[in-house]
Specification:
α2 links the parallel β2 (about 65-70) and β3. This protein has a domain at about 55-180: Protein of unknown function DUF192 (Jelly Rolls), CATH 2.60.120. The protein has four helices and ten strands. By secondary structure, it is an alpha+beta fold. The chain is globular. The strands form two sheets. An eight-stranded mixed beta sheet has the order 6-5-8-3-2-1-9-10. It has a two-stranded antiparallel sheet with strand order 4-7.
Length: about 180
């Protein structure tokens, strides 16, 4: 009788240990998108080259359209606009994070003056900031609910009347339906 109980008990204990061990794995932390991560492989080729153009998505901000490259992998977010020398008038880079959090960007190795919008899960612009070329001071979001960041040429938001509170949409609806972290 005891032998018949030991085997199922051992199997249940083994399964419990396996489930506990698999649940202990932590999700890797999200690093500052343009900050170098010394623990990760280089995000760009040697020689200071910009990362290759990323897949794009069409964004709508009011009556204005943007074509945004989507940086949704950690190495893409880290490299961002570093070493880029131009960005078209209605082009942008959209940074997609795996979960809402407080974030910050800096402009190390970035020569273009940019503006950044920090965006919440509902595709609503929470904040807009100007970023200066080469400035390594981090521009932190005030909100801890940032799910996306959108970089454009400096002054683009003001020129197009885009302000905090505006909603960004895509052909598929809100950002959450159109882009997902890979």
């Amino acid at each position: 009788m005891i032998h018949r109980l030991i085997r199922p008990l051992g199997q249940a204990l083994g399964l419990s240990i396996l489930l506990l061990a698999s649940g202990c794995e932590e999700e890797p932390p999200v690093t500052k998108p343009t900050a170098p991560n010394t623990n990760a492989p280089a995000a760009k080729p040697s020689g200071g080259a910009a990362q290759a153009k990323l897949p794009t998505i069409k964004l709508f901000l009011g009556a204005t359209e943007l074509i945004a490259e989507v940086a949704d992998e950690n190495h893409e977010r880290q490299a961002g606009m570093m070493h880029r020398t131009e960005m078209g008038e209605n082009e942008a880079m959209l940074f997609v994070f795996p979960y809402p959090h407080q974030t910050g960007f800096w402009m190390k190795n970035t020569t273009l003056p940019l503006s950044i919008a920090y965006i919440d899960r509902e595709s609503r612009i929470a904040e807009i900031h100007n970023l200066q070329p080469g400035n390594t001071n981090t521009v932190e979001s005030r909100s801890s609910r940032i799910m996306y960041a959108l970089e454009v040429n400096q002054g683009w938001f003001a020129k197009n009347g885009i302000k905090p509170g505006n909603i960004i949409s895509t052909e598929s609806g809100p950002l959450s339906k159109a882009v997902r972290s890979r």
